[in-house]
Amino acid sequence: MKLYNRKKNWLHQLKPVQMLFIFYFALVIISTMLLSLPISQQEGVDLPFIDVLFTAVSAVSVTGLSTISIADSLSTAGIIILAVIMQFGAVGVMAIGTMIWLILGKKIGLKERRLIMTDQNQSSIEGIVRLTKQVVFIFLFFELIGFLLLGTYFLQYFPNAKEAYLQGFFGTVSAISNGGFDITGNSLIFFQKDYFVQSANMLLIIVGAIGFPVLIEVKEYIVSKKKRKFRFSLLTKVTSTTYFLLIAIGALGIYLFDFRNYFAGLTWHENLFYALFQSVTTRSGGLATLDVSQLTEENHLFMSILMFIGASPSSAGGGIRTTTFALVVIFMITYIRGGKGIHVFRREVHEEDLVKAVTVTFMAILIFVASVFVLSIVEDFSLSQIIFEVTSAFGTVGLSLGITAELHTISKIILMMLMFIGRIGILTFLFMFAAKKPKERIRYPKERISIG
Amino acid sequence: MKLYNRKKNWLHQLKPVQMLFIFYFALVIISTMLLSLPISQQEGVDLPFIDVLFTAVSAVSVTGLSTISIADSLSTAGIIILAVIMQFGAVGVMAIGTMIWLILGKKIGLKERRLIMTDQNQSSIEGIVRLTKQVVFIFLFFELIGFLLLGTYFLQYFPNAKEAYLQGFFGTVSAISNGGFDITGNSLIFFQKDYFVQSANMLLIIVGAIGFPVLIEVKEYIVSKKKRKFRFSLLTKVTSTTYFLLIAIGALGIYLFDFRNYFAGLTWHENLFYALFQSVTTRSGGLATLDVSQLTEENHLFMSILMFIGASPSSAGGGIRTTTFALVVIFMITYIRGGKGIHVFRREVHEEDLVKAVTVTFMAILIFVASVFVLSIVEDFSLSQIIFEVTSAFGTVGLSLGITAELHTISKIILMMLMFIGRIGILTFLFMFAAKKPKERIRYPKERISIG
Ligand SMILES: [K+]
Ligand SMILES: [K+]
Q: Which InterPro entries does the entry mention (chains A, B) (predicted)?
């Protein structure tokens, strides 16, 4: 009884960000151990520790970058373990993410801060549990459909039902969790003419990366009886609009940067699906229907920008997040046009959110530049290859120009840190180091200064 | 009489930013015409229009990037014309800059805005004229000393007094204006063992790039009788501290990124002066005592960051400016530590200045990324070479890895635009497109949103 109380107190004292960190850390350790088991690896394979660790971090952070070939290294048991890790990485963190979203998200809102701080053990915990259940339910619902459809569809491609449904199971989990791993040995390139498989994968990737508040609201809209009166939240509107705009702009850009090169001589529908799929996958998916290393260097840079922006907040994806990007863009346009206050969808954005968005973007740029620096010192690869790899890790995307396996250990460690930060989000990461209580500051007089 | 009035009214209606633009534009056209004259070019030389235009823009924006060799193309008359253009580019713009600084700088300060707007033809114009005279006086004072010292000192290097004093004259103007052109044909590499010439050049570059408000305050401090009570402005403190910190960090970084390469086997004082000079020059100078293309790729990226930050506001230099960089850094540190309000030197920074700093930085990153994109599509050079050239133009630095002359016309046009924007400053550039009066906006309710 006493032990139970002590344990509860210890857990109780943790900040949500610390809980998230511990959850992640534990998941990485357990995953590394499980994937190190001989039963997880194919006969005759003995993966080095750094590569197992890298795979574990990549799976937990649902990135999909890999220093090994999953198809050539892991056994069927290992593949199932990997799928479960991705599932935990995506949904588990989303569950905790729900809680943090509710606690931190409201906590910062001036007056609500104290209210919820004292009150959080009651109705709010109830709400969190309900929300988390909904998220898990929606995820499992799509996974079941994906598994059944893809598994059955794959019967035409694979020699037996076991193999077809294993591919269907792993492929579904890899897509919806935005894990981006493949057991085909070559991502989805095998299905480059199969628009059904591609469409299913795009849909699953979007469900995983568009953000669970969006999923819940859409579900509520569908079950709602008064559809005309239903009001979507600002978050849902901003993140969905940005998400789909980025997909459209991304597809157009990817096509334009390669229309004289890779896309030359292909049919319009091949080009449409190539461009569309690769655009969707840069949001965070990481699966690919073509060998991205064959695209032009400009396309690699363009895709790096897309990956840097990443997915929606509170989703299975990474990056600076769509809302951050949208706020920064709207802020700049408003400022240049001489306006005051940031308005989106007839709502004024809270100043604190803008400050957050700016901080996240600057910190992300700082982390990006520092990582590119270290890798360009350590590695002999070209700058654009390094930029692509770094943004892919930070955006927890998992696309690669094929250099991951050849990197030095120090670069692998940096990529692991990037995947980790990209997944838990820069703000969560920063708040772990933040002072518990801001110091009382002396108020100083204001003075103007020249800028630019 | 009527004509005079009409002319006065026409000028009167112009916004300060538009006046600056017209001044620049006229200076570019006149410079291009003057440098196109046969008398300006050496016998047998007939420079293409685009190269003369590029040289003119480079001189007016005191950048120093060049698609031609000045030493091999321009006659003595042409060299003197080039020096005069740099002089106008640096001091002329600083004079107008003074005015804009006073008008815009105060204009934005809430209540003063209307006051000065209606009142600006009287006491403030008086103040501007006085300030401008001071700036020009300080500049000419340093130039005279530089010319006499360097010219006389050069007698040991050059065959006759005319050549020595021409070199002394051009070198002084090129350094203090931060123009960065050379007529030695090889920047200051000839003086790589001469620490006197290097020290004199560093001093002149710093005078030109540290910002004229700093120069004026230092002068006032020197002539002040009550030195203990003298109070430097926040701008002076922030920009000077940042400026010298960047020089120190820059020198250290430049050394570290090449200590196994270019700097290996040299004496400590050679390395000190190499690192120090190249660090000073990235603030905006553009002269060099070594062939920067022989440094490592990491050093090129590091120097690109230094050039992107650039010089002080209201100076002969470019980039996002030291104050912008300082505010963004302090803002991030304050936010992460959970503090409110940005404090520097016991003063609170005005919120509007912070917003400006953030806007400038984001816009600069946007312009930088877009330019790198276009150049990497058009050119076959490596990404780091392109990044170096682009930041050098935007920072109006003028260092080059030697690719300027080989660029396509479209790249040259982009570099010209970058030099132009870098010199007049992003904010001035943006305000040219800003709406004259911000539209009255409907006030919308605030709503929170998830970030990162
Ligand atoms: K991924
Ligand atoms: K320069």
A: Cat_transpt
